[in-house]
Backbone:
């Protein structure tokens, strides 16, 4: 059988650059070498340079998390700069596996570029990616579909805060940038004074922020696979060691306890899965995504957001859910690729 040429694209101009590199390395490590010729591509932190590297040299490179918060780039020996999608096409790439997270990778930007170049790619398309990343637009669609979400307000940089208690009740509130992932810029505001600090933090990453009512309850997440007939994977229970499931809880060893299947009733798990599929369809997803929930009073699922390219690192939730469903990491990647080729 002739091998499929697959480019694994990672990195990019995003606060999640290093996490994307870890996801990309894990994808490259687990792709079936008997089926795929793998071409790893690293996009620089400023988004201007594309580096083609060998799988072996990528896997032997240092831990990307050591570069978090610096301007340094991951060093991979014998890397070669290429001229974006034009050279990808010349190399006969038949599909791109997008292992990018956050802005410019998960928001429809790279998807649109690949669409224009005629290169099939994994995960949701341009519109679904854009809607999933823009939390304000995502919430509007959830409202239209009459799906359960928190009470919330949208605040633009420089706007005055009016009627917040009338709309959301008294603090605490949950504050996050409108267009970020991995809880970047997110925080809990327990007082009105904290709220200003939380908004200042969110505005470092976006000109728009969401203020949610604070909902107490168990955090769970549900991954979905497929195109026209999507399948929900087992629900995962999340117990962060910190105040909430923030960046460190997600990616630092021991940052959280993740239990799959979640220790909730079968009826509640089924309800979460059904809601996850409804969200997936409402946004127009394909391939794979993951929907996050809070169980209000540990009983009622409230939709928080969708991750259209969930993490694929060794610590990530999607691979754990797939494993619980009897799907190995390598088989999961194969399914994702097949969904992209059969869209």
Residues:
């Amino acid at each position: 059988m002739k091998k499929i040429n697959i480019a694994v694209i990672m990195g990019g101009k995003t606060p999640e650059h290093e996490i994307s590199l870890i996801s990309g390395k894990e994808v490259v490590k687990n792709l079936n070498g008997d089926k795929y010729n793998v071409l790893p591509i690293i996009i620089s932190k400023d988004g201007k340079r594309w580096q083609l590297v060998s799988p072996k040299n990528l896997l032997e490179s240092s831990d990307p998390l050591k570069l978090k918060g610096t301007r340094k780039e991951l060093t991979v020996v014998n890397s070669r700069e290429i001229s974006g999608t034009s050279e990808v096409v010349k190399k006969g790439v038949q599909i791109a596996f997008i292992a990018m997270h956050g802005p410019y990778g998960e928001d429809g930007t790279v998807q649109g570029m690949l669409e224009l170049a005629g290169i099939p790619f994994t995960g949701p398309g341009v519109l679904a990616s854009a809607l999933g990343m823009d939390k304000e637009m995502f919430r509007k669609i959830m409202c239209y579909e009459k799906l359960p979400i928190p009470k919330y307000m949208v605040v633009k940089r420089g706007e005055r805060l009016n009627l917040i208690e009338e709309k959301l009740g008294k603090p605490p509130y949950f504050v996050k940038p409108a267009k970020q992932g991995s809880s970047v810029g997110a925080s809990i505001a327990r007082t009105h004074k904290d709220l200003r600090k939380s908004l200042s933090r969110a505005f470092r990453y976006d000109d728009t922020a969401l203020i949610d009512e604070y909902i107490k309850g168990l955090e769970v997440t549900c991954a979905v696979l497929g195109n026209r007939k999507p399948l929900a994977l087992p629900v995962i229970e999340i117990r962060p060691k910190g105040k909430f499931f923030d960046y460190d809880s997600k990616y630092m060893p021991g940052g959280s306890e993740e239990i799959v299947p979640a220790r909730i009733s079968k009826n509640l798990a089924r309800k979460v899965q059904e809601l996850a599929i409804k969200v997936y369809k409402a946004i127009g997803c394909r391939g794979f995504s993951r929907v996050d929930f809070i169980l209000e009073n540990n009983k009622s699922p409230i939709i928080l957001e969708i991750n259209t390219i969930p993490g694929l690192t060794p610590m990530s939730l999607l691979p754990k859910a797939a494993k619980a469903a009897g799907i190995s990491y390598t088989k999961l990647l194969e399914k994702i690729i097949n969904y992209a080729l059969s869209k």
